[in-house]
# Entry
Amino acid sequence: MITVSLIREYLYCPLMVYIEFDNSETYNNSIIAYKLSREAFRGFEEILKRNIWTLKGRIQFKEILEEIFKDIPEYLESIYTKFEDEINNDDLIIKYQNLKEDLKLNSWLISIKVQKILNNGITGSDAVDMLFPPCLNEFIIVDKEDGLLGKIDKIEIIDGVYYPIKFKTSLPPLKGVWDSDALQLTAYALLMEYEFNKEVLVGFINYITLGFKKPILITTRLRERFLKVYNELSDILYNGHVPEVLKNPKKCRACNYSQICEYYIG
# Structure
């Protein structure tokens, strides 16, 4: 079964995919960091909705921010406790500490919207409906026919239209989005089309550290590029093909498998 997450690794270095299946026990800090942030933001949104629900009338921005953020520090402590055994180096500790600032930024942005809504005589409960459309979180889809599996961070449903959303804790490029993110989102769209029998034309990359989403059109070109990567992954996983490697000193030094890769550039 090919998982959507393999796309990012393949585009970083095809050999990573080949090595990983022979060394599945290798410790991967990036996976832990991703799990940590995904867990934090999933609960964060539920806390926001609960706290916004009780608001009504004209309220100062500072009061709104304090009210919707008040339970977040305690929630983050519970997340730390859950992942405490895995947060065992300085890099992961820094990532955890940065989460609070990221959540505070997102709370600040939401508070601006909430104040405008409340000032127009709309209640907090209605504000929740306006700001948080119905969604499916961490929705797993398995396409047994094509051998593809993906856990979609979030699917928003607006007027019967389904939108896949991928969370990112890193910064976007100066223009557009990273290729790996676009192709992963395309894979999610294809899985959703298989699961719901609905065409998916648009998805979003949610850059949670910046508090905004970038739309991605699921074009024919993206679908064709995904199919090419999918076929190459199939060749590696099912046929044992050893992919060619384009050596890159910067990537090699940052790779989790640098110490066991014969192509490593020190």
Q: What stands out?
A: The mean pLDDT is 86. Residues 166 and 219 are 17 Å apart (CA to CA). Residues 2-24+134-260 form a domain with the Lambda Exonuclease; Chain A fold (CATH 3.90.320.10). Residues 90-118 form the longest helix (29 residues).
